[in-house]
Amino acid sequence: MLDGKKSLFSGMQATGTITLGNYLGALKNWVEIEDEYMCFYGVVDMHSITVRQDPKLLRKNARNLLMLYIAAGLDPEKNCIYYQSHVSAHAELGWILNCFTYMGEMNRMTQFKDKAAKHADNINCGLFTYPILMAADILLFQSDVVPVGIDQRQHLEICRDIAIRFNNIYGDVFTIPEAYVGKTGAKIMSLQEPTKKMSKSDTNPNAHILLLDEPAVIMKKFKRAVTDSEGRIAYNEDQPGIHNLIDIYCATTKSSVESALAEFDGLGYGALKQRVGEAVVAELEPVQKKFYDLSKNKDYIDQIIKNNGEKAAYYAGKTLRKVQRKVGFPDRIR
Predict the structure, then answer these.
(1) What does the alpha-carbon distance between residue 313 and residue 17 come to, in Å, rounded to a whole number?
(2) Which of 66, 67, 157, 305 would you call most buried, defined as having the most Cβ atoms within 10 angstroms of its Cβ?
């Protein structure tokens, strides 16, 4: 708890434009809780470099992601929206937590195995210790809650284990974070492989909708979306492509599944794809407009980066200094 309010941390990697899945599954829901918690939303560019990045492109992607946070509706006055790399406490606490984490725990991390298989030519130590830096991200802000998807649950569990271990040695230092359980975000799947989650790293550009895709591109991708040969619109696991299209439609129009099915009754797959594409274009139009307006206002964005970076550093610094003193680092002479 910070300043009498429960705190929350989350973030996204600055490795490209976020997808419709990121937006509907997470970002859109963040907007609805900004009055309930003291929220810290990082552009986690330090995590991004576990995979080789083009420096110029990484800087551009980081700034674009920060603007997309705001364009999607996050108020930079109510939420602390900042670059992870601008707050050195992330790296400093990450190193300390490395020394309180066991190799056996890291060896059990399933995401490392998955990522190592995808990047066999660059299996670096950062990829291996990624969950420890994530733990530092969370614990720096004494986070009470963390919104996590199924693929991040294991990382939250190791974060809790590290925090409990540290507290057992040094006393009540870290808040033990809980998974945020609020309004369930829509789980959006690939348009080409609807049994897999939509991902911006998918090599098939038709598999995902990016938040900055132009309307014509969005419509073309939906027209190419994989369906099936059954020829009927139903909401069941046996028709994952149709199931996914209905999920997208309901998430963007706030319709219930029942009302959507009634609306689509008697339609063919082509008409369904058209309706869903139009709903997505309408949903993203104000987000895109806001993004391009923000991109023209360099001074305003620079001020947000400065102010929120300082705010994040202030709260992170309070936790870091406490941890440094507990482990025995000498006090700094001020």
Answers:
(1) 26
(2) 66
Query: According to the model, what pLDDT value does residue 65 have?
Result: 96
Which of 28, 60, 187, 197 is catalytic? The answer is 197
- Confirm whether 257 is domain-assigned: yes
Q: What is the mean pLDDT of residues 262-284?
A: 95
- 118 part of the active site: no
- Domain identity same for 91 and 152: yes
The predicted pLDDT at position 151 comes to 67
DSSP assigned state of 32: G
* Options 6, 115, 311, 318, the catalytic residue: 115
Domain of residue 261 covers: 205-292
Token code pair at residue 90: 């992330």
**One of 6, 187, 200, 273 is an active-site residue; which one?**
200
- Helix residue ranges, H only, the chain: 20-22, 28-30, 45-48, 55-71, 89-98, 103-107, 110-118, 125-140, 153-170, 215-223, 240-253, 257-264, 269-295, 298-327
State how many domains the chain has.
Answer: 2
Is 78 designated active site?
no
Please tell me whether residues 33 and 56 are part of one structural domain: yes
| 198 in any annotated domain | no
Domain containing residue 263: CATH number: 1.10.240.10
The position carrying tokens 């490795």 is: 15
Co-location of 287 and 301 in the same domain: no
User: Does residue 244 share a domain with residue 308?
Assistant: no
Per the annotation, the verdict on 200 as an active-site residue is yes
Mean pLDDT of 7-17: 90
CB atoms within 10 A of CB 123: 13
Q: Contact at 8 Å (CB) between 193 and 207?
A: yes
pLDDT of residue 64: 96
Considering the domain architecture, whether residues 33 and 147 belong to the same structural domain is answered as: yes
Residue 334 is predicted with a pLDDT of 78
- Domain identity same for 312 and 244: no
